[in-house]
Amino acid sequence: MALIYQALELVGDDGKGRGLFHYCMSSDEEKWPPSPVGGCAENCPGHSTPEAARLHYKEWQINHASTLKIVRSSQERCKVCDEWTQLRATVGSQFFEEFPLCEQHNTLEQLRVLYYEK
After folding, report:
1. Which of 13, 40, 65, 98 has the fewest beta carbons under 10 Å from its own?
2. Angle at 19 between CA 17 and CA 21, to 5 degrees
3. Where are the alpha helices (DSSP H) in 13-75?
4. CA 57, CA 39: separation in Å to the nearest integer?
């Protein structure tokens, strides 16, 4: 089973698209229908574009599912200035992305910039 994350158009009771989008998770199996995730699962009225729904999800991940930590077992180059660092910023809970960031750049603001570039 594969999980699928994508912006989907909201459908009205009449079965027609409403022109609003939520960012949703579903699977490639029919038994698991799409459901809103992140901020879209929290009384969100919907977004005018799929891109706006995706950005809403990314912002929710930054605000609710990110950590700034130290990894003592290895060093990597900072994604911003190329200095060696043991610090990591991660975004996501079940599936996450990790960014090596030095002490100066290991901030939510810098994490937001890098995460939105993806």
Report:
1. 13
2. 95
3. 50-64
4. 6
Q: Which of 17, 64, 24, 20 is nearest to 40 (CA)?
A: 24
**Neighbouring C-alpha atoms within 13 Å toward the C-beta of 22:** 20
Average pLDDT of the residues of the chain: 90
Tell me the pLDDT tens digit for each residue of 22-42.
Answer: 999 998 877 778 899 999 999
Separation of alpha carbons 4 and 87, rounded Å: 30
Closest-CA residue to 65 (of 93, 30, 103, 96) = 93
Render pLDDT for 77-106 as a digit per residue (tens, 0 to 9). 999 999 999 999 888 766 788 999 999 998
For the record, the structure tokens of 84 come out as: 């060696």
Length of the chain, in residues: 118
